[in-house]
């Protein structure tokens, strides 16, 4: 009797979870179906089109004058690879210093670092823009790249928590063997923080790929546009919007982050779990 109740309870739980999964997945299904519809058919309450407009993807890819989406994908890829490398390198160095080294006012500076996480970006937007304008960096990638060299408060905090979980005895053994601080960082700590580094890499790439506000503020030339700004160019207030092409290109634009998360999800989950449990 107890076994039957347990079996029924498991089935009920799985059915409820399946129902919620379908509910959450429905917008994505609609998105996929809408990317193959005509503009007129988008108003109909159907999930999939009566006629599949495969040309939405072809025409959307070549819709913008002088540029195909290949150009904007390469812009986004180059920018986000650079920012991700800078984030990982800078955040790991700063986190190692906070987690392992001793220096004056260490706790105070770490508290200041955490306080910056609570500061809205809108507060610093105007001072940053004025500073970058004085440097003649507007309409270049520098305003988007240089701040990445600071590491990012969230990434530093995440790596500090992970590095603190690594036994200090490893550092002492390395010092006995004549290893410098940088040697301990590079040869001992970094290989052991691989899950956390993968997590930082994924977060940095996802946030950079989805960033619309930063490129909108600092980039003026179409040849510098990233994918989010290219998608905005589909919306023209002076003419009809090709919604099918816009939805098709927006669906294609999420493929790189989805693929990265799919192939690195094991390390991502491990990094999040161990960082949350230790430290």
From TrEMBL:
It comes from the Bacteria. Belongs to the binding-protein-dependent transport system permease family. InterPro entries: MetI-like (IPR000515), MetI-like_sf (IPR035906). Residues 73-264 form the ABC transmembrane type-1 domain. Pfam families: BPD_transp_1. It is found in: Cell membrane. The chain crosses the membrane at residues 12-32, 79-98, 110-132, 144-163, 184-209, 246-264. It is a multi-pass membrane protein. The keyword Cell membrane applies. GO terms for biological process: transmembrane transport. Keywords: Cell membrane, Membrane, Transmembrane, Transmembrane helix, Transport. This is Carbohydrate ABC transporter permease. GO terms for cellular component: plasma membrane. The keyword Transmembrane applies. Its main location: membrane. PROSITE patterns: ABC_TM1.
